[in-house]
Design brief:
Layout (H helix, E strand, L loop, with lengths): L3 H10 L4 H8 L3 H9 L10 H11 L2 E6 L2 E7 L1
Antiparallel strand pairs: 1-2
Length: about 80
């Protein structure tokens, strides 16, 4: 699981707009904005958060740590 902070940081690191992430993850832009507004793990339905994570990983992000212990990102 990833946190809203990690999503914000990942998107900034690869210079994607919220719209670009939404398109690549096949989710709505409001979903991206809602996820990013959370500091912890955002509530999501059936794989939506996984889709966002997968899109960011395909874009060159590696998620490190865990939601409860030093969550972060790094470029692959």
């Amino acid at each position: 699981m990833i946190t809203g902070m990690q999503i914000r940081a990942a998107r900034a690191a690869i210079r994607w707009t919220a719209e670009t992430l939404a398109i690549n993850a096949d989710v709505g832009i409001q979903t991206v904005k809602r996820f990013e507004s959370e500091d912890g793990v955002p509530a999501s339905r059936n794989g939506t958060l996984d889709s966002v994570q997968g899109a960011l990983e395909a874009g060159g992000i590696e998620f490190i740590g865990s939601p409860g212990h030093q969550p972060g990102i790094r470029l692959k």
